[in-house]
Amino acid sequence: MRFVDIEQVEPPDFVFLALPAAPSIEVAARFLDAGSRVIDLGSAFRLRDRAAWKSVYGQAHGRWDLASGGA
After folding, report:
1. pTM exceeding the 0.70 threshold for the entire prediction
2. For 14, how many CA atoms within 13 A lie in the half-sphere containing its CB?
3. Can you list the residues of the chain whose pLDDT is less than 50?
4. Which is it for strands 37-40 and 14-17: parallel, antiparallel or unpaired?
């Protein structure tokens, strides 16, 4: 097995994420922008209500356009 830095990964067809919310948002956006399909097993895209998300996680969502289904 060999680990590769995320910056060196070629965009795959699918990406499965299981990261904390903030890193998951960054990584999901990167791969979505590259054309991959992303399945997030964490909480970053679980809620559709922006106010509820901010209340639950105590921070603003960095790419709400992705969470709200705008992408």
Report:
1. yes
2. 4
3. 71
4. parallel
